[in-house]
User: Which sequence fits this backbone?
């Protein structure tokens, strides 16, 4: 191992960890004295976080749509910290923000590669380690898995698939606790993308509502849902496994303190 794991510290993998919700989750876990292995495509922010937290952070810059990286992530985490106690599957893409009639199967395939199949690849490699620790997985979902927004077809259906994958993982792996969480409308780069790129495909009224929520300061700071998610990957009870929750619903009151 390249670092020393403190007694009682757990080790968590956070994907999409260089900014936004993923970065907030990683920082919260670090403040709780855990080890965090970061995964994202760009390494500048992850390198800085490692420098600020020597001995408790390691990272891998990787494109998770390349399924071969999954094995490298698990191996590197175990090499750095000796184990895997939990994973937050936070990475994802919204594009294409395009109606079905104007999109292509190849665009949808790219979305599914990132939002669904990369999670399958990562879990396939992680399961043996998570069995050892009776670990936890939190999949970042979306309310659009249950509703519809014009031009969000690939994103919404991919999140619905991720929710079912979460349920299947719980059914097949009794020693692993897995939950799917919708974090709400968080002030991240994805919200910026909706405002800047969504006008052509989304209805005017729905697009305007996203712009208005930003302008009136109603988007959530990443730390709010991030804190709930960090606590869930740390200590979610078995009776939550396989289920989907909104980050702020009453069922998760114990994690919202």
Assistant:
């Amino acid at each position: 191992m390249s670092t020393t794991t403190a007694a009682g510290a757990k080790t968590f993998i956070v994907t999409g960890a260089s900014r936004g919700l993923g970065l907030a989750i990683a920082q919260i876990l670090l403040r709780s004295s855990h080890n965090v292995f970061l995964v994202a495509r760009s390494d500048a922010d992850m390198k800085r976080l490692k420098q600020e937290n020597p001995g408790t952070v390691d990272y891998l810059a990787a494109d998770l749509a390349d399924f071969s990286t999954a094995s490298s992530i698990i191996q590197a985490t175990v090499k750095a910290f000796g184990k895997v106690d939990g994973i937050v599957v936070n990475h994802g893409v919204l594009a294409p923000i395009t109606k079905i009639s104007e999109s292509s199967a190849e665009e949808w395939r790219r979305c599914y590669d990132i939002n669904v199949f990369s999670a399958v690849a990562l879990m396939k490699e992680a399961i043996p380690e998570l069995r050892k620790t009776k670990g936890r997985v939190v999949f970042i979902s979306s309310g659009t898995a249950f509703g519809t927004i014009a031009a969000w077809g690939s994103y919404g259906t991919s999140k619905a698939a991720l929710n079912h994958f979460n349920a299947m993982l719980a059914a097949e792996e009794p020693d692993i606790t897995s939950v799917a969480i919708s974090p709400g409308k968080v002030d991240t780069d994805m919200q910026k993308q909706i405002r800047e790129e969504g006008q052509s495909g989304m209805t005017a009224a729905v697009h305007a509502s996203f712009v208005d929520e930003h302008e009136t300061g109603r988007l959530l700071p990443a730390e709010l849902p991030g804190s709930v998610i960090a606590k869930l990957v740390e200590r979610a009870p078995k009776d939550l496994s396989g289920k989907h929750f909104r980050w702020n619903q009453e069922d998760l009151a114990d994690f919202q303190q």
